[in-house]
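Notebook entry, structure prediction.
Reason for the run: the old model in the group folder had no record of what sequence produced it. Starting over properly, with the input documented here first.
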Amino acid sequence: YATNDNKLYRVSHITEIMDLAPYSYSGKFYTDVFKYTAPIGSASLNPVCPYRTTLVGQFESPISSISVSKDDKNVMVTLNPTATPSSTSGLVMYSKSADIRKAVNPVTDWDKKDQGLSNVVTYCSMMEKQDSKKVFVGTDNGLFYTSDITTGSWSNVSDMSVSSPEKRLPKVQIFDIEQ
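New structure, fully documented this time:
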């Protein structure tokens, strides 16, 4: 999940989340994970939370979407920079680690993957279920696609070759992508 201070967290053992009063439906779910105070990158348990919350990303800009590969090893986030992106932060960031569940540095464990996505606002993203290298990003200028997220080279789907221009997708705002 993402927070309003541009941080990305991973929750482990989510199936263990339980009602504080499991014998009664009047109990309240314990979801106050914002009290997590362990050091950045630490995988230690939060003593006030029944499950583990780990900081896996810290960015300069607001997070607009999160996509996770089918095997839960890779994560991609889209960002909406409030100013010109720096060399370390872009519109699309992809986890460097071979397995995000084992990442140790939430600041440097990310690669910028936004070649061809300049001057757009991102709203949503989706990794294909069968091939997580194939990714779609919904923007204010249409739908963008890459066949290999590790290269980070994007094409606007409406510019892709189709036999006749009237059959192409329009360049409109894309707020949600579903597979």
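Summary: The chain is about 0% helix and 25% strand.
The old model has been moved to the deprecated folder.
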